[in-house]
Each structure stands twice: as structure tokens, then as C-alpha cells.
Amino acid sequence: MATGVELPEIDAQRCVHTRAETAGCAQCVAACPRAAWVLDEQQLALDTVRCDGCGLCTAHCPQGALRHPAVRPQRYAGRETLLISCDRVTCGHAWELPCVHALGLREIGWLYRAGLRRLVLYTGHCAACPRDDPDGVLQRVARLNRVLAGRARPPLAVTQSQADGTRRVANGGGCSGAPQSHGRRGFLRSVLALSVPDTDDRSTREAPGRFLPPVRRGQPALFVPRIDPLRCSGCDACVRLCPQAAIAVSEQRDAYLLDADACSGCGLCVDICDRDAVSVEQDAVFDQPRVALQGARCRSCGVDFHRPEGNRADVMLCPVCTQVDHRRHLFQVL
Predict the structure, then answer these.
(1) How far is it, in rounded angstroms, from Cα 36 to Cα 30?
(2) What is the CATH number of domain 1-69?
(3) Nearest 10 degrees: CA dihedral of 64, 66, 72, 77?
(4) CATH 1.10.10.10 fits 214-323, yes or no
(5) 64: closest CA among 200, 258, 207?
(6) What are phi and psi of 290, to 5 degrees?
(7) Which end of the chain has less neighbouring CB within 10 Å, N or C?
(8) What does the alpha-carbon distance between residue 6 and residue 139 come to, in Å, rounded to a whole number?
(9) How far apart are CA 127 and CA 10, in angstroms?
(10) How far is residue 61's CA from residue 59's CA, in Å, rounded to a whole number?
(11) Per-residue model confidence as pLDDT tens digits over 79-135
(12) What does each C-alpha distance from 252 to 45, 227, 294, 302 come to in angstroms?
């Protein structure tokens, strides 16, 4: 590990791999430009020698199980404009991150809810940097803005100015260690964020959709969970294991309730469903807020159960007995 490198903080209890052995999430592994994360059948581990503290893994973790010490958006609450720089450039007036792509959907959504309407990025030449992320902060803001447009809310403007003079988004401004004019000073004062107590932990706990105006049926969402009623057996595994309660059973137990804004996109529900009945789609229209259930009593074991209406499976057998023939040892030749 290089001197001065800040490693990601790990909350193992939030990682989907602690909830189910069948979890397939490997976003931290895929995001790391230095191959510092190792995932195998035995463990998910960080090679601290390889890690350079860029923070990309924390931005990609859907569950907020990884957190970079520098990414604390709570310090910048209430600002309409925020200037962020990376560690490849010098900009004493900015919130400096190891990489601007360490700012994830969750943090961007939190800042938007806290009042942010313009994000100014000042970076090195990203295309030549091994940390450049094709799914980075610009793409995350674009995703957020598509959802906001579908919910009739104002967008988050973003500008990226690079140290070589190029701009990836128009209408931006650069940065320097010292302001050069009164107008410049005024601009920098407007983007300088004042510190506030770092007490709100929701920016690393809630799904990013929770920081947006509540979704209604027919509106877009960052992540949209769906259940195929013709495939679903009603076993409730997705309900029990969803870490965000994005899939729940109604109090009357007559329907599955789906909450797109609560979905973090971790995919655990998809991984554990043995019927391939659950799916999660990014940037889609929320069109299935509930799935009606019909109740019955299993004719084999006598337990009460439920299954989606219209399911073609035997409505008199519970999910367990549908797969297990309890009578197979009833008659034997000794």
C-alpha cells in the first residue's frame, strides 16, 4: 500500500455475499482498475498492496458496503453549486476526491435532495488515466436526470473541465490555485462548500432512488424490480433476503408490493430465485407496483401458502411440496 493511501472502509454486514452464498454481485471487482479486489468461492478480499485508494469500488457497490473516507457528501449539504476536483490537479477551492468517479449514484442523489443543482468537475486528462470509468460520474448524473425529467423535476447540471483545456460537457469553468479576477472570486465563493456536521448516514445506507421524488406507476426509476407471476412459486425468498425491502408482502398477505425507489440494484433477488421469476432492470418504467396473491392450504403437508394469481402450477401444493414428493418412501419392498 502506497504511503498516504486511504483504503475503502468495509461494512461486511451490508455486502450481499454475507446474506446468501448464491449472491452474484462482483461490481467492486469489475470496477477496480488495479485488480485489488479478489472474489472466489471462499472470500471477497482486498489486496491492500495493489489498492491505490481511488474509490471507484465504493461508487459501484450497490449496497453501500464500501465507503471511501473522502466521500462525505454530508459536509456539502445545502449548496446549489459544488466544485469537485481529483488528486491529479491542484484546486484549493474544491472538494478534492482521489477520483471524481468515486462519487456514486447514492451520493449524487443525496446531494440533489440537499439542494445541489450544479456540479462542476475539474480533473486531469481522464482518457489517459487508468481510473477513467465509462460508467462514471457523468453517466450517473445522466441517469439521474432522465429519471428527474420523467418525474417533472429540474435536472442536475454538470460540467467537467480538464487540466489540458478540454471540456467533456459545455458551459464549464476551470480552476486554479489562485483566483485571477473579481468575477473569478465571486464564482469560486459560489462553489465553495461550507462544512456541516457529518451526522447523516443515509447517503451510504439508502438506495439512491430514496433521495428522489417518490416514483409513481408509469414513471422512470433507476432500478425496477419485477416478478413474473407465471413463474413465481410464492416461496417469499426474495422478500426475506432483499436488503432494502424493495419487495414485500402486504399486511393482508394478498399481494407482493414492489418499491422501485427502494431497490439498490444489487441483484440478490435475481440470484436466489430458483424459478427465474425475478428481474431488475435499470432506467426503466415502474409498471408493476404489486402482484396479486391467492392463498391456499397444501393438500400434502397442510401448511398455508400463497402463489401469484394466474400461476399455472398446482394451486393445492405449497412451494416445498411442489418440488419434493413426500410420499416417495411411503410404500417400500423390504
Answers:
(1) 10
(2) 3.30.70.20
(3) -10
(4) no
(5) 207
(6) -150, 155
(7) C
(8) 25
(9) 29
(10) 6
(11) 999 999 999 997 778 999 999 999 999 999 999 999 999 999 999 999 899 999 999
(12) 43, 19, 11, 20
